[in-house]
Specification:
The complex is a heterodimer of chains A (164) and B (289). Chain A contains 5 helices and 5 strands. By secondary structure, chain A is an alpha+beta fold. In chain A, β3 and β4 form a beta hairpin. Chain A starts with a strand and ends in a 6-residue tail after the last helix. Chain B folds into 3 domains: 50 residues, Uridine Diphospho-n-acetylenolpyruvylglucosamine Reductase, domain 2, CATH 3.30.43.10; 115 residues, 2-Layer Sandwich (Uridine Diphospho-n-acetylenolpyruvylglucosamine Reductase, domain 3), CATH 3.30.465; 111 residues, CO dehydrogenase flavoprotein, C-terminal domain (Enolase-like, domain 1). The model of chain B has no long low-confidence stretch (mean pLDDT 96). With 289 residues, chain B is of the alpha+beta class. In chain B, strands 4-5-10-6-7 form a 5-stranded antiparallel β-sheet. Chain B has a 4-stranded antiparallel β-sheet with strand order 11-12-13-14, sandwiched between helices. Chain B is built from 12 helices and 14 strands. The chains are: A alpha+beta (164), B alpha+beta (289). Chains A and B meet through β4 and α3 of A and α2 and α6 of B.
């Protein structure tokens, strides 16, 4: 089939592209837009390394076709730091040694981002549940959980809940 | 992992989707949440030449009350079902079972209708649909028909849907009396699928005996199945541990069991009894609580 035109907003910037229907969103982000922070780990929809935020929710970008993202708003790991300042989650992974090889880290951070926007004060069990779809082969998850706890407390300090 | 080439259509109405199915013929495949189909396409175990994406059809999404019961649009995601306030009070099983599906990203994309139509022998929703006696609303070239859940699951990965039909809505009838329901699952540690999953619904009266019950098993055999022997054994009996244990011994009667490297047929048969008992005990507690 002929290529189809899509329009997607990635990290606040609008892109128009002609894509083959079979092009996976993760390949579009990496190979067409050059955003290689989103990783491909397993290719079988299990590892979560390719997790991004699409229209406000975490999704595995290896299991969505780029044509399906037409009209959507996407945030990738590259979209988190603002004005040279790391996002609290990125800072947390740095401070708490939340990574070893780093391959799973972008997906871990995007899943944690999804969690914190729904639940700014998660328990340890809630953090571990939220990471169900992200595999890490190095850390044993302990420091990843700590990194997310660090980020949650930073986000709460900086955006205190308005007094009622 | 690059899937084979296909033509892509994104209709915005059910009628348009049915028209495309008729026009493109049996090589066309419907795409719902894509969390079964897209992995199969990446492995080239499936290579449909036409994909008809249902994600742009607004009428297939959402949850509404219907004739005392509730109707769930086929393209409602697992995560929407799991967190639905319309379902939480009267059908808590949707929250319990929904939260056990895959992981958050799978639940954000995967849909209840996609899961039911795929008829995966280890899917969670087929057991829930059977235990709630759901009615499947199906649209086709000749209009709508309704198929009870008990007739919907035909065989492994095969539902009662014809090639030119679309599952549109899952209707859950109202339940009268004091109702309890539960879903208990032995989760495969890697895939998250049900090695065995049991959905149980019990209806009791003031005296604490079982007026009615439905028990459905998934994961254990080639398709989700009602455990009618268990139901017969429990009806009219008190909803206590003794009666439930005795009834649960009949779980798996007449069933063909699947065996694989993770769980043998014998082990699945054993788990079926254990999880039937657990699901019935939990359902009984919620009916009496």
């Amino acid at each position: 089939m002929a290529k189809q035109e899509i329009r997607v907003t990635v990290n606040g910037r609008e892109h128009r592209s002609e894509v083959e229907p079979r092009l996976l969103l993760v390949h579009y982000l990496r190979d067409v837009l050059g955003l290689t922070g989103t990783h491909i780990g397993c290719d079988t929809s299990q590892c979560g390394a390719c997790t991004i935020i699409m229209d406000g929710q975490s999704v595995k970008s290896c299991t969505v076709f780029a044509v399906q993202a037409d009209g959507s708003q996407i945030t990738t790991i590259e979209g988190l730091a603002k004005d040279g300042q790391l996002h609290p989650l990125q800072e947390g992974f740095w401070e708490e040694h939340g990574l070893q090889c780093g391959f799973c880290t972008p997906g871990m951070i995007m899943s944690a981002y999804d969690l914190l926007q729904r639940n700014p004060d998660p328990t340890e069990a809630e953090i571990r549940e939220a990471l169900e779809g992200n595999l890490c082969r190095c850390t044993g998850y302990q420091n990843i959980v700590k990194a997310i706890q660090y980020a949650a407390s930073r986000v709460r300090e900086h955006e205190p809940v308005a007094a009622s | 992992m690059i899937p084979a080439e296909f033509d892509y259509y994104a209709p915005t109405s059910v009628q348009e989707a049915i028209g495309l199915l008729q026009e493109k013929g049996p090589e066309a495949k419907l795409l719902a949440g894509g969390h079964s189909l897209v992995p199969l396409m990446k492995l080239r175990l499936a290579a449909p030449s036409v994909l008809i994406d249902l994600n742009r059809i607004a009428e297939l999404r959402g949850i509404r009350s219907s004739d005392g019961g509730v109707a769930i649009g086929a393209m409602t995601t697992h995560s929407e079902v799991e967190s639905s306030p319309e379902l939480a009070d009267r059908w808590p099983i949707f929250h319990v079972a929904g939260a056990m599906i895959g992981d958050p990203m799978v639940r954000h994309r995967g849909t209840i209708g996609g899961s039911l139509a795929h008829a995966d022998p280890a899917g969670d929703w087929p057991a829930v649909a059977l235990a709630l006696d759901a009615r499947m609303h199906i649209a086709g070239p000749n209009g709508e028909r309704v198929v009870p859940a008990g007739e919907f699951f035909v065989d492994m990965l095969t539902s009662a849907l014809e090639p030119d039909e679309v599952l549109t809505e899952i209707e859950i009838p109202a339940l009268e009396g004091r109702v309890g329901m539960a879903y208990e699952k032995f989760r495969h540690p890697a895939s998250g699928y049900a090695v065995v999953g049991v959905a149980a619904v019990v209806v009791t009266d003031g005296s604490g005996s079982c007026q009615d019950c439905r028990v459905a098993i998934t994961g254990a055999g080639p398709k989700a199945t009602r455990a009618t022997g268990v139901e017969e054994a429990l009806k009219g009996r008190p909803l206590d541990e003794q009666s439930i244990s005795a009834a649960a011994e009949r779980a798996g009667e007449g069933m063909a069991f699947l065996g694989d490297i993770y769980a043998s047929e014998e082990y699945r048969e054993h788990l079926t009894k254990v999880y039937t008992k657990r699901a019935l005990l939990a359902a009984a507690r919620s009916a009496q609580g």
